[in-house]
Amino acid sequence: MSADRSTAAPGEPGSPPRRGALGRGHGRGKSAVAVIGTGYVGLTTGAYLAHLGHRVVCADVVAEKVERLSRGEIPIFETGLEELVREGIAGRRLSFVVGAASAVADAEFVFLCVPTPQGEDGSADLSYIEAAATEIAPHLQPETVVVNKSTVPVGSSRVVERAIGRDDVFVVSNPEFLREGSAVHDCLHPDRIVIGSDDQAAAIRVASLFESLEAPLIVTDPASAEAIKYASNAFLATKVSFVNAVANLCEAVGADVREVVLGMGYDRRIGFEFLKPGPGWGGSCFGKDTRALIRLAEDGGYDFSLLRGVVAVNEQQYERVVAKVERLAGGSLTGVPVGAWGLAFKARTDDTRDSPALAVIRRLEERGALVRAYDPAATGDLTDITRVEDPYAACEGATVLVVLTEWDEFRWLDLDKVRDAMAKPRIVDARNLLDPAAVRRKGFTYEGVGRQ
Ligand code: UDX
């Protein structure tokens, strides 16, 4: 790992390390790690740290989940994760236990990977993280580094420090940037590693865990580390809202958003990434983190109106998809059968949390449409959705088909079969997944996003 840039770190002039020695876990190669919480971030973190050679114990409160994980059975849909977990178990570097207290007893590092859901006022709910910190506090060895990976508001390191209430233990922030669907890849090939600590020695000990990864290392103060995570997610959400707004402009002026993005992307300051228009952004992070950042700014006396605009554009985007379906249906959705392809918030994940696909489907239903949806992987509470097991079954008798998630398999379906199944051959492609010319040749009326 190369230390490309180390910002005004705790050890810089005026801020000497609290303790001189690097302490346990530094320079010895492999370390004893506990991970609290086996959700997306926790399970992936545990598995890849074991893959890097560390001895990892993962704790969860649900006994049945721990049992299944101990057998190498993964509750989430994530490419390569099951293999990594099984490799760790077989190599005796990865194990699972019930309860945080037993996991931390011998640990040099404890990673807190518990959820920080959105509270009622938009701010992040820290109750899980405080509870976990309080629970582990009496069981920690002196010199242990507690690493916070959960996304927490700026300043939360202090909350964890207070909950632990010990001055012989360090609290370090190490935000996670993994994407669902490519979590294992993102962990093993990170764009950067961010470590926030008031104690440089503790920061270096955490950095040593990731020694074998080639990535720029940013060592900074805890508040800046926490702000980096929020600002990154908010910026990515801004990019998507921006390109969605540009797509809407293209529709108004007869331009093609794909050409516009191509022309923009060659400017290295802009790039091509994260500029695909669609039905809006979603998932477990973007909505929660953008709203938490707006709230955090508000609490600090700053009106982050730019970000409020980003959220507003996103909600309008759902509405625009609904309006297209309504238009193709002839002006009213009452009693209109609509086929929907996609429920997950993006392809290559089964996650439907804050899914734009669900937001669109629920709005269509509110207007009286009868939606039948197909998704190859989606899980979650979908009891209010009529779900079918086959993409063609979703088209059966439909007046309009709407493509909501960019699953690859939707590109290659038999359009003749789709047309024959539908009452009227009309497609709203909210992901620009299909080839408009090919679809129109088959006799469909087609509407994409930001293109003719
Ligand atoms: C995101 C961040 O990318 C990751 O770094 C962070 O740690 C967690 O949040 P994830 O929630 O897995 O990851 O989803 P991501 O791949 O970022 O996509 C978010 C949403 O934006 C999806 O709904 C996706 O469909 C949408 N999106 C993304 C677009 O509509 N267009 C794009 O060009 C990119």
Spans where pLDDT lies below 50 across 5 or more residues: 1-27
How many β-strand stretches? Answer: 14
Structural class: alpha/beta
Helix and strand run: EHEHHEHEHEHEHEHEHHHHEHEEHEHEHE
Plain-language structure description:
The chain has 452 residues and is of the alpha/beta class. The chain has 2 domains: 32-220, Rossmann fold; 286-447, NAD(P)-binding Rossmann-like Domain (Rossmann fold, 3-Layer(aba) Sandwich). The protein has helices spanning 40-51, 63-70, 81-90, 100-104, 127-136, 156-164, 183-188, 200-209, 222-253, 257-265, 286-299, 305-328, 356-366, 391-395, 415-421, 436-441, and strands spanning 32-36, 55-60, 94-98, 109-112, 145-148, 170-173, 193-196, 217-220, 337-341, 370-374, 386-387, 400-403, 426-429, 445-447. The strands form 3 sheets. Strands 3-2-1-4-5-6 form a 6-stranded parallel β-sheet, with helices on both faces. α1 packs across α3 and α11 packs antiparallel against α12. The chain is elongated, with a radius of gyration of 24 Å. Mean pLDDT is 92; it is low at 1-27. The structure holds uridine-5'-diphosphate-xylopyranose.
